[in-house]
Amino acid sequence: MSLLLCTWNLGCKDLDGQMPKEGDFEWLGKMFKETQPEVVALGIQELHPDLLPKLLEDVQKVWRDVNGGELQATAEHCDTYLPLLLFQTMTSKVEVAPLHFTFGKHKVCSKGCVAAHFDHHGLPLCVVNAHLEAGHGKVHARNEMFAQIASKFPTPGSNSLLLVLGDLNYRLEGKKPFTEPTKATPVEQICQVFLAEFDEAVTKCQAGNASELQDRCQLRLSRGDASCFEHFEEAEVRFQPTYKRVKASESDVQEGIPRFDHDQPRMPGWCDRILWRRASDVEVKVLDYCSVESADYSDHRPVCAVLQVQRRG
């Protein structure tokens, strides 16, 4: 079975904001054509629930233009900003389960997860679209949120394949302690240690040396001490940090030069990730794991994984 998994934080929390145009999903059509997947899971973060029908229509049109016909779609927002779009080439019963994290007086939350359980060719699968706590210094909060998510799903071995995709919000650790600025931080009050760390990280990325920063990835560090994602696997991350990005020129995209936000600087990070936990009789082969540099609609770049899954024996 072939799976195409994609995650993208669109930053469309307001109804009066500009929605992605049809052309913003051309990369997805290319992925459809190249991979010919049996299952497509598209996890979106920060999309107002009222904007979901338009997004679903655009994605279905991309599929029709490439392959013709229709894909069965299950779209569920569960009163969150976290739609999980699931497309299959065959019909199967899908059960959707939300897990909300509500902060303060917010009635509609943007953090948490939506999970879809289904069976494909006799293989039970669960796909989770997650959005964890933001902020450079919130590693412990992210780990705790993921622990709540993991506790809601079967323990390792009882579910054939559990796939987690989303904006997990893990950043790069600094070499020295610093305070990351917020939108409300005046320019003259931005921590100078942070700016030095930010400039160093961005320079490395733009020079093609982002791999040198991998050991400072908060997710890698947390997994290393078993603080989160225990028993999960992930393909090697070879793409650029996906956050906090700005529009890049066509030549930048072709040359692989990432552009980061200097007006509202945040510590770069591989925020957008795809991991999985499998039963011992399930084999997962990674065909591709990449970011989409040409998709510059928001301050995140989409991340996609192409997996081939089969049972052993």
Features:
single chain; about 325 residues; alpha+beta; Deoxyribonuclease I, Chain A; six-stranded mixed β-sheet; five-stranded mixed β-sheet; 6 helices; about 20% helix
Commentary on this structure:
The structure is a single chain. The protein is of the alpha+beta class. It has a single domain (2-169, 217-242, 269-311), classed as Endonuclease/exonuclease/phosphatase (Deoxyribonuclease I, Chain A, 4-Layer Sandwich), CATH 3.60.10.10. 21% of the residues lie in helices and 29% in strands. Helix 1 packs across helix 2 (52-67). The two termini are 15 Å apart. The mean pLDDT is 87.
Q: Tell me the overall shape.
A: globular
> Overall pLDDT, averaged?
87
The largest sheet has its strands arranged as 3-4-2-1-11-10
How many beta-strand segments? 11
**Low-confidence sequence ranges:** none
How are the SSEs placed, and which strands pair?
Elements: E1 2-12, H1 26-35, E2 39-47, H2 52-67, E3 72-76, E4 84-88, E5 94-101, E6 111-120, E7 123-131, H3 139-151, E8 161-167, H4 192-206, H5 218-224, H6 250-255, E9 272-278, E10 282-291, E11 303-311
Parallel strand pairs: 1-2, 7-8
Antiparallel strand pairs: 1-11, 2-4, 3-4, 5-6, 6-7, 8-9, 10-11
Helix pairs in contact: 1-2
Briefly say what this structure is.
The protein is an alpha+beta fold and 313 residues long.
